[in-house]
Amino acid sequence: MHGLMQNWQLTVDKVLDHAAHNHGDREIVTREVEGNVTRTTYKALHERAKMVSSALKEEGIKLGDRVATLAWNTARHMEAWYGTMGIGAVLHTINPRLHPDQVAWIANHAEDRILLFDTTFLPIVEAAKSQFKTIEKFVILTSRDNMPDNSLGAVSYEDWIKGKSPDVVWGDFDEQTACGLCYTSGTTGNPKGVLYSHRSNVLHTFITMGVDTLGMGAADVVLPVVPMFHANAWGLAFACPATGAKLVMPGADMSGKAIYELLDKEKVTITAAVPTVWLLLLTYLQENNLKLPHLRKVVIGGSAVPERILRAFEEEFEVDVFHAWGMTELSPLGTLGALPAHLVDAPHEQQMEYKLKQGRPPFGVELKIVDDEGNDLPRDGETSGRLVCRGPAISSAYFKGDGGEVLDENGFFDTGDVATLDQHSTMQITDRAKDVIKSGGEWISSIDIENFAVGHPQVANAAAIGIYHPKWDERPLLVVQPAPGEKPSKEDVLKQLEGKIAKWWTPDDVQFVDEIPLGATGKINKLKLREMFADYKLPTA
Amino acid sequence: MHGLMQNWQLTVDKVLDHAAHNHGDREIVTREVEGNVTRTTYKALHERAKMVSSALKEEGIKLGDRVATLAWNTARHMEAWYGTMGIGAVLHTINPRLHPDQVAWIANHAEDRILLFDTTFLPIVEAAKSQFKTIEKFVILTSRDNMPDNSLGAVSYEDWIKGKSPDVVWGDFDEQTACGLCYTSGTTGNPKGVLYSHRSNVLHTFITMGVDTLGMGAADVVLPVVPMFHANAWGLAFACPATGAKLVMPGADMSGKAIYELLDKEKVTITAAVPTVWLLLLTYLQENNLKLPHLRKVVIGGSAVPERILRAFEEEFEVDVFHAWGMTELSPLGTLGALPAHLVDAPHEQQMEYKLKQGRPPFGVELKIVDDEGNDLPRDGETSGRLVCRGPAISSAYFKGDGGEVLDENGFFDTGDVATLDQHSTMQITDRAKDVIKSGGEWISSIDIENFAVGHPQVANAAAIGIYHPKWDERPLLVVQPAPGEKPSKEDVLKQLEGKIAKWWTPDDVQFVDEIPLGATGKINKLKLREMFADYKLPTA
Ligand SMILES: Nc1ncnc2c1ncn2[C@@H]1O[C@H](COP(=O)(O)OP(=O)(O)OP(=O)(O)O)[C@@H](O)[C@H]1O
Ligand SMILES: Nc1ncnc2c1ncn2[C@@H]1O[C@H](COP(=O)(O)OP(=O)(O)OP(=O)(O)O)[C@@H](O)[C@H]1O
Ligand SMILES: [Mg+2]
Ligand SMILES: [Mg+2]
Asked: Regarding the domain delimited by B254-432, which CATH topology (the fold level of the hierarchy) does it fall under?
């Protein structure tokens, strides 16, 4: 027997419809790629998104066709999103920090038919142009006046949607319909295509809106520094219209100065980004003796939150830090660091210790850790194992199957992360499965070593990798990028780790490099690092 | 093309699984029907709910079978819920405030096979016993020691689940499967059966968790005074385990003293009930000079919030009042009164004016007002019309079809309420369609007149009904129940309305009664009131 409730399909067009009808005059503020700040409303954005739909239909775009963007967070980018998704086409966000060859490879793999991009990215598109196999049309997200010279026959976005009808039917298809395509960062290998459905995006939106998740209300002002090409700006491009929160879009300028200006002038209450962006902001704030009186919550994820960033926000700026762990395959939120009940009145240091961990799963994310044979491991906060998960906004496969099988026989997705879970389901990432250092049959967490190493003031960045050892199989080597102008010694750095990690975890050596290689999302590229040290031999070997 | 995301069915057993795994030691505190206070945890409740499932299976209960409860909010009631729903049987909450004949009628209509009930309701069950046609077994929600004498052959709940296996598979059926059955209050006619699906309950849970909806987090302590037999305690019986909030269950005692004690001792942060309950509490607080330092949010709905209740909470007790409008058919939340952005810094009086309205719809509830021909009416805050709505947790039909067709050709459900909407979608109920007074072709809002009339200190309750008038078709009669020991005059009462309502809305007469008849959920029973005044003639007629 079925319930007798309405058949209301979970499609993302309803999110923007909701915003236009109920929060029509709430603003979307954009720092344009040209530098000036513009303002629109959900009502106006909704109408222009419908015009995008008409323009796409005129190009022959149909249900399931892929439309790509190479774009910053702006109101136009949002219009393009909803205009595409609303008619059941698939919005493919390409990460512009990839090499042009990779951009072309991804666009071809996705079989994108149209590419919309910001003027900033013209050089990438020109460089990749000869390799694109499926793109029929290039649209530059700007007005006619700002159109750059190009060899693509590109049209300006404003010209393209001008005069198009805003009367287009949205939705009206199954909620399982594909909605968005986003490739993983390619940190551990080739990027894999994650194909979101309307249903998964709407359910993730609901998850995002919870108090202990991102938790914004209609009166909030949200600045997603995290780009829309990183797994839907962690869901904010949906959750903000769904709640009626005002959106502040930072465009191309991630400098501390530019972000501070927006946070301050627009009275931003919630913001989200990866740690590296916050380092820039914090440096700017400290150098200029500035405060953040309006900001109440900063969400930090994508890689582990360094302690100095956590403390600066919490202690100097009195902003609540929500550490978040997620993956492209999780839409992306997996855990968040809202304080659990038993820590709300706990001493500050205990709270900070908790907030360095990755947090707890919201309803809609099932987490557990397993050993290599797939057996459940205890939630004791000590045992670490492969982190696997289930939920309505978690991948079941990659686009075209390229990335392999990802579910076990119980439907759990293998995250490729190694973690501990405690009795309250507080999760702590100890490593990537591919980065774990296996010494004498035991695991050493590269992330732990790195986190403590970067606590040294003379260290800008640090990475631990496993190096062959005749007796122990692998032993850790610590690679250090010194802070500008600094020359830390091996002993200095190792001293920093003393007493913080188990003695047998101590790296067998420290090597200094000018720059630790980073991937397209700012994470350490250990593949490349391992290549750099392919011929290296440990002094202990 | 479909997205490639996991097929994770939205079934409510996952809600309690989530609580047990991730918030296992959070408490559920119950004031037992016997008066003592007991404590359990989500983990223990989960295990006992599974034992209920085993007990039900032994009784031969299968997917789709109905299991009924006549019960207060207690941990046992929750166990019975999840134990029933987890195996795909349908939990039917019967309103114990109904007459025994109605209880029997509803149980027969639902074809309930098992009835679980609190000792308090034994007299009702005994009285209805001879009329029950389908109930095979009676279970009393208590221990063997507390079992009352009865002629039902009833078993004690604790005996019934004792030794039963907690190893039962939950879920594993389609999310459209029927999950709960709840009849409407019967204010305007016969109660109608609303059949919730697992999907609708889970989606409503997500809606409930939003900051501007009920918005609880894991650190909150929630006291649902609103009973589980009123549309799932407004969703709290799902939303609290979904977030890990501590639950405080008030059992049978709704007195100001009992509720205050729980609010205070358990440090409740969020609570919800109908206005009449809050009147009792406020009187008790004022008489005993008490404060509510922990409480931060009180949700009030089911009927319009009287101004004195709003002001007492907001001004004397500094608690944020969320006015809520809902219906059994909406699972039940439709609108909530979180302040919109433009009023957050507005003068207090403007905020109070807003909070007397019913609020705005969250994402997942589409609202509009239409005229009698179904044409959309403007959102100008003035025009009133029939309120219709759409959403994934809104009825498409009543159980067995008894209640008629409810959707229009666009899938909108007719609420039977008459309301205005403003440009921000702020909704204000002006009347029930059946209660609207039609004077000279124009509508007079009975609710408005009543709300102002009860503002008079000598008035305990007031109801406006339309009475036949030869010239105007109908004119309003105001029926007043004086406050204990008071004797207000007709002139006094009408003076109270002066300047607050349009002159032509002024009732043509005021009649005094000892008691205004109320229905099973404490709402004014206008059907009965109209019967009482069937022979009455207006002095102006
Ligand atoms: N708060 C965090 N702490 C530690 N690691 C994190 C955190 N948030 C995210 N990560 C890491 O980022 C990964 C997800 O990143 P993303 O989906 O962008 O691609 P990627 O895993 O870096 O790339 P690829 O899958 O292509 O190798 C997680 O699996 C985890 O390893
Ligand atoms: N905040 C509120 N202000 C005014 N009226 C409200 C409010 N909340 C609920 N109501 C009224 O309660 C109704 C829903 O109540 P419920 O589902 O319990 O059954 P009922 O409508 O009273 O009974 P029946 O449908 O059997 O006549 C709404 O349609 C509305 O008329
Ligand atoms: Mg990955
Ligand atoms: Mg009704």
From this structure: Rossmann fold (3.40.50)
Taking the C-alpha atoms of residue A182 and residue B451, their distance in angstroms, rounded to an integer, is 54
Q: Which CATH number fits domain A437-532: 3.30.300.30, 3.10.20.310, 1.20.120.450, 3.10.20.740?
A: 3.30.300.30
CATH 3.40.50.12780 range(s) for chain B read 1-27+37-197, 254-432
Mapped onto helix, strand or coil, the DSSP state of residue B280 is helix
Please compute the mean of the pLDDT values over residues A212-238 and round it to a whole number.
96
C-alpha distances in Å from residue A315, one per residue of A261, A309, A318, A356, A515 = 21, 10, 5, 14, 30
Angle at CA of residue B529, ends B523 and B530, nearest 5°: 130
Residue ranges matching CATH 3.30.300.30 in chain B: 437-532
B296 lines ligand 2 (CB under 6 A): no
Tell me if A394 sits within 8 A of B5, measured CB to CB: yes
B176–A contact, CB cutoff 8 A? yes
Is the Cβ pair A8, B177 closer than 8 Å?
no
Q: What is the per-residue DSSP string for B371-411?
A: -TT--B---SSS-EEEEEEE-TTSBSS-GGGTT---B-TTS
Q: Which one of B1, B5, B196 would you mutate to disrupt binding with A, by most A Cβ within 10 Å of its Cβ?
A: B5
If we measure between CA atoms, which residue out of B114, B124, B112 comes closest to residue B150? B124
Interchain pair B212, A5: CB under 8 A: no
Q: Taking a contact as any Cβ pair under 8 Å apart, which residues of chain A between 83 and 112 contact chain B?
A: 90
Nearest by CB to B2, from A6, A197, A413: name it: A197
CATH architecture of B1-27+37-197: 3-Layer(aba) Sandwich (3.40)
* Per-residue model confidence as pLDDT tens digits over A344-389: 999 999 999 999 999 999 999 999 999 999 999 999 999 999 999 9
> In this complex, which of A243, A331, A361 lies closest to B22 when CB atoms are compared?
A361
Backbone angles phi, psi at B329, to 5 degrees: -70, -10
Query: Among partner residues B177, B211, B397, which is closest to A211 by beta-carbon distance?
Result: B211
* Residue A467 to residue A534: CA distance in whole angstroms: 9
Confirm or reject contact between B248 and chain A (CB < 8 A).
no
Q: What is the ipTM of this complex?
A: 0.95
Asked if A3 lies within 8 A of B197 by C-beta distance, the reply is yes
Q: Convert the pLDDT of each residue in B441-489 to its tens digit.
A: 888 989 889 989 998 999 999 999 999 999 999 999 999 999 999 999 9
Q: What is the mean pLDDT of residues A55-61?
A: 98
Answer yes or no: is pLDDT of A521 > 80.
no
Round to whole Å and give the CA distance between A168 and A51: 8
| A90 Cα to the center of ligand 3, angstroms | 21
Interface test with B, best of A4, A67, A205 (most B CBs within 10 A): A4
Which two three-digit tokens encode residue A110? 């996705």
Residue B191 backbone dihedrals phi, psi, to 5 degrees: -60, 145
| CA–CA min distance A317, chain B (Å) | 23
Give pLDDT tens digits for B179-209: 999 999 888 888 999 999 999 999 999 999 9
Q: With a 6 A CB cut-off, is B326 part of the ligand 2 pocket?
A: yes
pLDDT over 90 (residue A260): yes
Q: Which of A392-401, A490-499, B407-416, B514-523 has the lowest mean pLDDT?
A: B514-523
Asked whether B299 and B355 are in contact (CB, 8 A), the reply is no
Q: Does B8 touch chain A (CB under 8 A)?
A: yes
